[in-house]
Structure formats: structure tokens, C-alpha cells
Amino acid sequence: RAPAAASAGRSGPRRPVGLRPGAKLPAMVLAPASRLICFNKPYGVLSQFTAEGKWQGLKDYIDLPGVYVAGRLDADSEGLLLLTNDGKLQARIADPRFKMEKTYWVQVEGIPQEPALAALRSGVQLNDGPTLPARGRLLAPPPAVWARNPPIRGRKAIPTAWIELVIREGRNRQVRRMTAAVGHPTLRLIRAAIGPHTLEGLAPGDWAD
């Protein structure tokens, strides 16, 4: 489901937000002292509170003591970033050993045909070894997402398409390397979900818990 255009506000509503319909919160999230923040990270923001070079930090959007990022998202990627004050939950989300699914919407150069999608699903060879089997499909029509600032580079002679890719790994720039390996470089990358948590109801730059 595409993120809503309306925002819940920077401070966020006091209710579970960003869950798939019917999904249940993991037991650790329900612990009384635990807090889980869903943040729609804009392009150009680092997965850390401190700014660095040309990139903004999370402190420009989130002013909460005692919460830490659970799993990173590159500055040039957008979408769902989770933060928590629970160390065990942070490890469970970020550690690849737990194999929590991460769903990405990827705008790529060209129109991927079934052989390319099948290669993404079965695993592709990268310079640090083959990827695990994944789920991948063409998104037609494309997802109704916000305009990016700055916009992606475009070439009139080359069409673009959106694919959904669901992986259980967390290698450095993995999704970008996977699409490039099958002949479709990534132009825009949005993380739409981590496990049961989604972007639903969150505009870019907004968070909720």
C-alpha cells in the first residue's frame, strides 16, 4: 500500500502506526519500557543523528532522548527507518541472523523482463558472494509515491520501471548492486517495510510510534 500524502505530524500519534493490516506487534515491542519509532527518512538524510558533509542528520527531524537507529538506510535512499530504546529489539531488527524481511520499491532503468526478475528471485552473484533467494515483481502501475528532491536523473531514450524486492539480508548497498547485476541500474530506492512495519500514514520527514 502506498504511503499516504497526509502526515500524522512530527510528534506522532500515540498509537501503533505503520503496521500491515492484521499484523501483530512483536512481544518485545509490547514491553512497557520499549519504544519503537517509525520514521519516513527523506533523501539526503543519514541514519545517524549527527550531520556529516552535505548530508543532514536525524536530529533535524527527531528530538527524542535515548532512541537509536535499528538498521541503517543510505543517505541517498528513502523510506522506513526504525529507531528504538530497546537494545534487544534493536539487535533483532538489525542483525541479519534474524532474517527480518525488508521490502523495497526500486525505480530502475529499463523495463525488467521475467529473466531479470527470476535472477533477482533466485539470487545473483555479487563481488562478496551470491545473494540469498528473494521475492521480486514488477510494480505496474507504479507506486503512488512523493516527488523526490532532487528528482532522479532521466534519459528520454530509456524508460524506467518500478520493482518490489523483498530481501532478508543487509549487505552494503545490496539492492542497488542486485539490480545493476541484472542490467537495470537503480535510479531511486524506497524502503517500504521492515517486517510488519510500513510507511503507511507517514509523509517524508515525519515519524510516529
What labels would you give this structure?
9-stranded mixed beta sheet; single chain; two-stranded antiparallel sheet; alpha+beta
Kindly describe this structure.
This protein is of the alpha+beta class and 209 residues long. The chain is built from three helices and eleven strands. It has helices at 87-94, 114-122, 174-181, and strands spanning 36-41, 68-69, 78-84, 102-109, 125-126, 129-130, 135-139, 160-167, 186-194, 197-198, 207-208. The strands form two sheets. Strands 1, 2, 3, 4, 7, 8, 9, 10 and 11 form a nine-stranded mixed β-sheet that branches. A two-stranded antiparallel ribbon has the order 5-6. Strand 9 (186-194) and strand 10 (197-198) form a beta hairpin. It is globular, with a radius of gyration of 17 Å. The protein starts with 35 loop residues before the first strand and ends with a strand. The model is unreliable at 1-30 (pLDDT under 50).
